[in-house]
């Protein structure tokens, strides 16, 4: 301690020295030494005063604590003495307590007698009270009936409890009491039936007489309190009256649940056999019932039940569960495609919409997003799969029937209808896409994914349908070729078939734009495009075949002796082509343009074929000049015709081939043949050696050596053929005789 005190003094001195040094750092501060000394003296006095006060306070606290401890010690001694006295008295009174058993029994008997006296009035008037209660129940005076029932039950239960306390094993007396009050249980059951009846009609009762519903709830609440009291007594004594617990509150909720279920199940008023729209009617009736009932619950019924019942939430869930069970039952039935769509649209869209559970009056009471789905996802998927299977089967049948109907129109004696622009068409595209549109509108009501599935299925079926459409168009052409007089409007309906392909394309693009979010092509797009183009090209080819069947006789006259001496074959060809193309003007673009180009090419090719077949060999220069002039004239006729048909577009190249061949024939100096032939070959590089040989043979004046020289020179300087946009000689074959001549060269 001394060391500690010395150390403390040293620290204090050091601190003081440091403070003084801080105060006297400048010379002018020496004048204030006395002032500093007084200030430090005041601080020292203040600190000493605080220390004294603190020490005094601690001493007072210690003094008070010692005094309380001394008093507590005295109290403990007094308690110890008292406990010793109690223990002594208890040992002396054990024998006295054992002698009081008779008093105890007398007390129990007195309690029973007191209970009997208290209930004596009810005991003697039980039959009368039972009769009065029965009348009250029948008159629907439920609160008064319940009051009397409670009095009867209270008398019975008190008597049985006292008997149980006196002798729990005395079943004879217990049964005597139970039998005497035997009709009370029947009254309880009758009253319960009345309560359940009111609850079953709760929706009507709450509108007509809400006080009746309130009375029922009050009775049930009373019984719940009695149940709880009896159960608490059972825990303490082991006794519980007969018929307890009644659990009427639990039974009330079961009745309400059954009422809601019955209301939902009873909404079906018609069957499929009586009305094809039975599903739509059923769902609409259910929607109306549920919405009306829940609004009644919110506005009226909630006021008839205690707040802790959470009445609206409870009814909301009851209706949701009942509807869920009902739609699952419907989903398990053998539904047709339209019924599946109606059900799923209602379940997935209508149910949570403002028309039903999302109604503004209900949204404030319950969050519809907390509800479980009406149908499990696997059931929804199963229904969608079933719909797609049925839809596939149905649409295949619909398309087949539509095509059969359209085919019948092809054989009519009247022309097909024309659209507003005058193009021939049939009703097939409109029927098909109306069918697609209707089903897609229905699918869109379910969800976006399903809508796109249906669209892809439509396109897949469309592809198969177009393949059959092409086959039927080919069969139509073959039927016509067996008798060209029938059908009478073959050309017009073939034009309509071609135009339908254009309409199909536009309709498909319209459907995809309207019902398909993605701009990516589907897996059927390429196949559909190809099939439609094939049908259109086939149709155009069939029509051109029809034209050239009529021209066949006149084409056979070309480049013959009869032609050379004078014939109207080309005039007839031009008139016939123009006549046909007056009908072909009713073909939509681009098919009509392509068809005109193909007709032009084919006329020129047929003309040149006539040259290559050596129907005539010119005998002299006059015949060659006359034939060449006629060829040039006829080439100009063809130019004029096809300029007219193509509205002035460039058509000279094809017809110039005829003029170029004519120049080969017209040449008077055989020695210049090589130059003329070279010019022809340079303009039309797809021309082959056998074509040159045929032309030289037709001139009739080219020697063997000249032919050989021309061919050898041409072979040495043959122009490259890299593919021409519109070849002429490529498809022209030369008769076998000319091939032999070529080999001889």
Automatic annotation (TrEMBL):
Keywords: Acetylation, Cell projection, Cytoplasm, Exocytosis, Golgi apparatus, Protein transport, Transport. It holds the Pfam family Sec6. Gene3D superfamilies: 1.10.357.50, Exocyst complex component Sec6, C-terminal domain (1.10.357.70). One of its GO terms (molecular function) is SNARE binding. The keyword Transmembrane helix does not apply. One of its GO terms (biological process) is exocytosis. It comes from the Eukaryota. InterPro entries: EXOC3/Sec6 (IPR010326), EXOC3/Sec6_C (IPR042532). Its main location: other. GO terms for cellular component: exocyst; Golgi apparatus; growth cone; membrane; midbody; perinuclear region of cytoplasm. It is found in: Cell projection, Growth cone; Cytoplasm, Perinuclear region; Golgi apparatus; Midbody. Signal peptide: none annotated. The exocyst complex is composed of EXOC1, EXOC2, EXOC3, EXOC4, EXOC5, EXOC6, EXOC7 and EXOC8. Interacts with EXOC3L1. Interacts with BIRC6/bruce. Interacts with MYRIP. Interacts with SLC6A9. Component of the exocyst complex involved in the docking of exocytic vesicles with fusion sites on the plasma membrane. Belongs to the SEC6 family. PANTHER family: EXOCYST COMPLEX COMPONENT 3, EXOCYST COMPLEX COMPONENT SEC6-RELATED. This is Exocyst complex component 3.
């Amino acid at each position: 301690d001394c060391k500690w005190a010395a150390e403390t003094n040293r620290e204090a001195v050091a601190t003081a020295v440091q403070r003084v040094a801080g105060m006297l750092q400048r010379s002018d501060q020496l004048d204030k030494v006395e002032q500093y000394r007084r200030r430090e003296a005041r601080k020292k006095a203040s600190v000493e005063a605080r220390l004294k006060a603190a020490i005094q306070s601690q001493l007072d606290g210690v003094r008070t604590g010692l005094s309380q401890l001394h008093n507590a010690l005295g109290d403990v001694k007094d308690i110890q003495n008292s406990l010793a006295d109690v223990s002594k008295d208890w040992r002396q009174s054990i024998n006295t307590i054992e002698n009081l058993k008779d008093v105890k029994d007398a007390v129990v008997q007195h309690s029973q007698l007191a209970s009997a006296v208290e209930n004596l009035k009810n005991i003697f008037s039980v039959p009368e009270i039972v009769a009065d209660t029965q009348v009250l129940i029948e008159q629907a005076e439920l609160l008064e009936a319940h009051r009397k029932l409670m009095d009867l039950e209270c008398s019975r239960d008190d008597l049985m409890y006292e008997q149980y306390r006196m002798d729990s094993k005395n079943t004879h007396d217990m049964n005597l009491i139970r039998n005497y009050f035997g009709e009370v249980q029947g009254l309880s059951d009758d009253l319960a039936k009345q309560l359940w009846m009111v609850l079953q009609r709760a929706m009507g009762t709450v509108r007509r007489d809400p006080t009746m519903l309130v009375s029922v709830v009050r009775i049930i609440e009373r019984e719940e309190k009695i149940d709880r009291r009896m159960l608490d007594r059972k825990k303490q004594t082991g006794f519980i009256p007969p018929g307890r617990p009644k659990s009427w509150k639990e039974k009330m909720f079961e009745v309400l649940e059954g009422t809601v279920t019955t209301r939902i199940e009873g909404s079906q008023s018609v069957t499929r056999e009586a009305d094809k729209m039975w599903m739509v009617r059923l769902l609409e009736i259910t929607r109306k019932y549920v919405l009306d009932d829940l609004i009644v619950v919110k506005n009226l019924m909630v006021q008839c039940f205690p707040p802790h019942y959470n009445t609206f939430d409870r009814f909301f869930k009851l209706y949701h569960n009942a509807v869920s069970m009902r739609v699952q039952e419907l989903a398990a039935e053998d539904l047709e495609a339209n019924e599946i769509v109606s059900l799923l649209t209602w379940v997935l869209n209508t149910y949570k919409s403002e028309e039903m559970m999302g109604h503004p009056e209900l949204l404030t009471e319950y969050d519809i997003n907390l509800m479980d789905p009406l149908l499990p996802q696997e059931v929804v998927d199963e229904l969608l799969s079933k719909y797609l299977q049925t839809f596939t089967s149905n649409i295949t049948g619909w398309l087949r029937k539509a095509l059969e109907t359209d085919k019948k129109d092809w054989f009519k004696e009247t022309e097909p209808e024309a659209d507003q622009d005058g193009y021939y068409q049939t009703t097939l595209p409109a029927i098909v896409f109306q069918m697609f549109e209707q089903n897609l509108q229905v699918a869109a009501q379910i969800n976006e994914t399903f809508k796109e599935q249906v669209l892809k299925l439509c396109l897949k079926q469309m592809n198969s349908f177009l393949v059959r459409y092409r086959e039927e168009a080919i069969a139509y052409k073959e039927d016509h070729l067996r008798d060209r007089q029938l059908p009478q409007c073959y050309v017009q309906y073939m034009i309509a078939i071609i135009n339908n392909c254009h309409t199909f394309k536009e309709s498909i693009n319209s459907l995809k734009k309207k019902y398909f979010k993605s701009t990516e092509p589907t897996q059927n797009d390429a196949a559909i495009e190809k099939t439609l183009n094939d049908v259109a090209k086939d149709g155009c080819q069939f029509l051109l075949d029809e034209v050239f069947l009529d021209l066949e006789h006149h084409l056979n006259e070309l480049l013959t002796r009869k032609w050379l001496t004078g014939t109207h074959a080309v005039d007839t060809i031009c008139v016939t082509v123009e006549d046909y193309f007056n009908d072909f003007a009713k073909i939509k673009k681009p098919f009509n343009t392509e068809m005109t180009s193909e007709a032009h090419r084919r006329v020129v090719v047929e003309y040149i074929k006539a040259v290559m077949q050596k129907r005539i060999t010119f005998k002299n220069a006059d015949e060659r000049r006359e034939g060449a002039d006629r060829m040039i004239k006829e080439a100009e006729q063809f130019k004029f015709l096809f300029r007219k048909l193509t509205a002035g577009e460039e058509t000279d190249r094809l017809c110039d081939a005829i003029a170029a061949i004519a120049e080969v024939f017209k040449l008077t100096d055989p020695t210049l043949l090589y130059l003329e032939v070279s010019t022809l070959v340079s303009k039309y590089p797809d021309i082959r050696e056998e074509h040159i040989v045929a032309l030289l043979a037709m001139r009739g004046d080219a020697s063997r050596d000249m032919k050989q020289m021309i061919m050898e020179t041409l072979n040495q300087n043959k122009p490259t053929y890299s593919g021409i946009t519109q070849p002429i000689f490529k498809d022209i074959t030369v008769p076998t005789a000319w091939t032999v001549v070529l080999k001889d060269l």
